[in-house]
Amino acid sequence: MKLGVSCNLHFQLDAPTVLILMLRPLNGVQQWITKSSYVVEPDVPIIESKDNYGNSCQRLVAPPGEFIIHTSAEVITTEYIDSAPGAHFIEIQNLPYQILPYLLPSRYCESDRFGDLAREIVSDALPGYDQVGKITDWVRRSIQYIPGSSDLPLSAIEVHNHGYGVCRDLAQLAIALCRSISIPARLVVGYLYQLEPMDLHAWFEAYIGDRWYAFDATQGDLRGGRVIIAFGRDAADVSIYHQFGLGCILKGMDVQVNLLNKSL
Q1: Which one of 50, 115, 175, 180 is at 20 to 30 Å from 67 when CA atoms are compared?
Q2: pLDDT value of residue 264
């Protein structure tokens, strides 16, 4: 399927402010960018680079006053998400080197605190994909998904204690549970077709059977129509913008996902 996606940000700045942005969708992760646009008003120089996870980052100095970022892309992506019940657990000594960081506790995914709970959740599941499925189902049943319920990232422990959260929060709890039983897991941020209410979305991937598979604790049935912007260990790695300095206010964000062509 072909989707048209866009994210527009409207900032109000009191002083020159450095911004590091992550707004350009990735090419080649079951998706292909056929057209894209990236415009800032007023126009300023932008430095493009890749972070440690291969995500596309843009660095700039925004001037005082109103600063607006318009981004859009046309993307060919899959209508269906791959699943593999029974896919096997990969022993740590056999994991590719670049996958190892996704086994460790991180700022918002305190996997070293969830071992007992995770083992209880997956006690009757085959090691690997089926365990991640059990974890995803448990998070969906146990943590209430409330869009807009938190502005700041919560850690997995905080989400577990609160019993509710946004998509990012549910994904990070699931990631912590997966890592606690030695299954690599990472956070994904991007667009999701027909998401209600429309916004950027977060889900997670687990490394099983020699590849990454997507899971989403906010949905009963995992559906496609996803456009990936970034991967990372947790929300600290995949924020769509970081500001450095005082007096920077995000006054508005508009996200759109439209179907352009379903028969490709």
Answers
A1: 50
A2: 56
